[in-house]
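In the previous chapter we treated chains in isolation. Here, by contrast, the input contains three separate entities that must be folded as one system, with a combined length of 398 residues.
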Amino acid sequence: MVVKLDKIFNSASNSVFRDKSVLQANYSPETIPHRDKEIEQVAAILAPCLKGEKTSNLFVYGNTGTGKTLSVQYVKNELLKRAGSSPSGLRIEYLNCKLKKIADTEYRILAELIKKLGGEVPATGLPTDSVYNKFIELIDKEKQILILILDEVDQAVKKISDNFLYNLTRLNSELTKTQICLVGISNDLRFLDDLDPRVKSSLSEEEIIFPPYNALQLQDILRGRAEKAFHKNIIEGGVIEKCAAFAAREHGDARRALDLLRVAGEIADRSGDKKIKLRHIDLANNKIERDKILDVIESEPKQFQLVLMAIFELAEKNEKMFTGDVYKVYREFCKKVNIEVLTQRRVSSIISEFDMLGLINARNLSRGTYGKTREIRSAIPKEIEEHAKIILRDAIFV
DNA sequence: AGGTATTCACATGAAACTATTCTCTGAGTTAGG
DNA sequence: TAACTCAGAGAATAGTTTCATGTGAATACCTGT
């Protein structure tokens, strides 16, 4: 036993990493390669705020991991650095609208902003308009320019409806001293299309699109980070290229590439290897994929897990199944573990959500006289499915 | 044979309901002066 | 009389139920040849 622990601890001190945080999601590098043009554009649009003028509202688009957030944050910091010396009254607040329980409703977004500006709002109990008033009161105390960066607004709009954006744009007319500028960041390129035209026109005064990174650019990024993250000569030839190639396939997602490299490093550490080899990348890719799926399954509420279990159960016999089948099996499971049975309507939505999460593939299918339904099949690889079942069993039969 | 109608088994949407957590307000209660 | 307590009304939110309406194609049912 002791020997084993020795080995583990040794490998910890003998890591391939010099500074792992460089590869973690929240790390912000001082240079952002291949985004000069975009950063300049953002800066040019927001520059007037340094002179105390209102800037145009801005919308930033691009797939995940294309450096949107990073670039905007970078510009934000530069602006604040420059504004710091002069009493220009510039405030820039960044808010990620996807954060559950923090900023995923109109009320909470406002509350969070108020909190960032030094106010205090209870989590619930107040009507939304009084929170608006409080917000107005808070920011309109002194003359200032307020830039609100709303990351992943598409998520918020999907959940709340777009009139909260409308309210925000309209806010300027109620403010006497302060001016608000909005910077929206979205992963969804079609997001603008199904937005209320009023909101659309006022919000997208300026638009910047972040194209995906190509494999060569990803290699650059990876090399830059790897240099800081790992000790010298740790990475074998071809590893960076392979990481980049994997991520380039995933719509040029740099975050994915960095994750891949980090996990590969962790795997190398754990297996006691002194170098990161090509096969570590494959292992890392599997691990990331697996962890993602298993995390989702584990964190799902009980009812969802029961439905999923029903799907797995059926998937064992037949590859594909229909909603009605799933519901029947689900109901049996519920009775077995003494949990209330949800309506078929609800289960149908749950199935839809699984489809969105990519845990299953569902497609609408008409079977003529035998009705219209959804054809469902598990989208989880067999190896993982076994593991997933164990997790489900543990979670349900506690 | 070719065309229309029916019918199934759900999908999809909207609204309403439930339970929980929290605020606000005003009535009633208490303790000290 | 000021301070305190406590119940009730109202909000926000998540997760659901209820009600209503929609739907694609296999099959049944015609219809004229």
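Chain A has three domains: 36-209, 213-297, 300-397. Residues 122-127, 322-324, 344-345, 348-349, 352, 364, 366-374 of chain A lie near DNA strand B (CB under 10 Å from a C1'). Compare these points with the single-chain example from earlier in the chapter.
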